[in-house]
């Protein structure tokens, strides 16, 4: 799809969207969704569910054909430096490079707009965030401990992440909470 010919509208979501742009690897999209749903902790050894979080608590995966082959330049054109009124200041693209790697690195794109009276801060170039690290980025951004753009030069190998995979007590507790949410609706 040629996005140069028609303007793209970025989604209205309450959280940073993860836009699927590559539709050649259905299994890759399923792996990405599982990774975003996986409970992760940033300290080793805890079995307390309160020490874990999931990226899906902070991002919204969007699987719509209209975002096929979406490029960072098109995203930036759709969210100009001034005046966009989106409720998020960054988003992620799930592209062919994402699905071609075991750690599923999403392409993060900074689209923040400086608030009136703030010191202008230039947008950083798009950068990769491994799927299991998205929760940490989003947690820190949500509490303004670190802004999204401050992860630009991160060496993800320096950040240890601990996964509560299927069969662990933490994973099963998250699964049970999900089922209770479904039952309540």
The run of helices and strands is EHEEHEHEEHEH
Mass-distribution shape:
globular
Supply the number of helical segments: 5
**Low-confidence spans: pLDDT under 50, at least 5 residues?**
none
Q: Compute the separation of the termini in Å.
A: 37 Å
Side-by-side strand order of the widest sheet: 3-1-4-5-6
Give the helix/strand class. Answer: alpha/beta
Helix content: 25-40%
The strand count comes to 7
What's the average pLDDT? 90
Largest sheet: 5 strands, mixed
Tell me the radius of gyration: 17 Å
Domain DUF6924: 16-154
Protein name: DUF6924 domain-containing protein
Pfam family, one: DUF6924
InterPro entries: DUF6924 (IPR053832)
Commentary on this structure:
The chain is of the alpha/beta class. 26% of the residues lie in helices and 15% in strands. It has helices at residues 26-37, 72-78, 96-99, 134-142, 169-184, and strands spanning 16-20, 40-41, 59-62, 90-94, 105-110, 127-130, 162-163. It has a 5-stranded mixed sheet, with helices on both faces. The longest helix is centred in the C-terminal third of the chain and has 16 residues, at 169-184. The mean pLDDT is 90.
Topology, please?
Layout: E1 16-20, H1 26-37, E2 40-41, E3 59-62, H2 72-78, E4 90-94, H3 96-99, E5 105-110, E6 127-130, H4 134-142, E7 162-163, H5 169-184
Parallel strand pairs: 1-3, 1-4
Antiparallel strand pairs: 2-7, 4-5, 5-6
Domain DUF6924: 16-154
InterPro entries: DUF6924
Organism: Streptomyces yunnanensis
